[in-house]
Specification:
The protein has 287 residues and is of the alpha+beta class. It has two domains: 47-172, no CATH class; 175-273, no CATH class. The chain has eleven helices and ten strands. It has helices at 17-20, 47-63, 112-127, 132-138, 144-149, 155-162, 165-168, 174-178, 192-195, 242-252, 264-269, and strands at 6-10, 23-28, 78-80, 84-89, 92-97, 170-172, 208-210, 216-221, 232-237, 258-259. β7 (208-210) and β8 (216-221) form a beta hairpin. The chain is globular.
Length: 287
Amino acid sequence: MADAGSVRTTESAGPGAGALLEVTHTHGETRPWEIHIVKHPKRSESSHFRAAKKVAKKILQELSGDAAQAPYGAGPWEMHHGGSLWVMTGNGWRMYRARVGIEWSMQFCADPAKVERLRQEAADLVAAFPFTLPALESLGYKRARALLSTPVTDADGVEAWTDGLFNACVPMSTPHHSGVLPKAAGEHHYPWPTKSADFFKFDDFQLWVTLPDGTHAGVAPVDRRGSGDGHVRIVHARHGTPAGDALAEAQRRRMMAVAPPDSPVALAAFEQQIPPGARSASTPSVG
């Protein structure tokens, strides 16, 4: 049995979930470390963020007649600092994501010169939608022009950009924003390349599955819908778990970590697409 500080590395060795999670060797951690859980200091809400939230709520009210138009589904919403490039198009409000968003706590390590590039990119996008600034001003948001035209050169400029409309107002429900599995996979805790599939996957495909050790993984089919192939590729698993180490090993080898169609992982992922009681996800009914 491995000691409590060890990490077990695994790889696929044949059919069945047990093979996927079979231990091949262990790694020990010899240098102890700790994290202190402390009381969060009171966070003051900047005037930039108050103004941005106010106009974002007005924009969302205009979209409320059609929940499908909201970027990430119906509310109630929290405002996520995720790079929210709101523009007024000929078909109404749309939100695009910036190349990167700046989370509130990350502004304190932000290089103004790099934030300045984000400002320039946002200004270029908004310039392509000339109705945007007049529409924002009609909603009472007078800061947009200054945000887009003022170079970011110092910490004050970083704060203004971080808490402004074009960064701080990605509207997400609490589960999508900060939820943790098994209830929900929030963007703060799960990688965006996998998490984003929550917003475009088929409703009857289970993106997040429970693994035999009780942790969770994000999975994807290996072929298009209707192919009858019930294998699933593990695209995210917790670091330091058997599946996480299998995934890391596969990536190092430029290969895939794949669960076979008769594994609990594949059966759970395709459960709504295959006949009840099926012992393999590779059936003609897949799709």
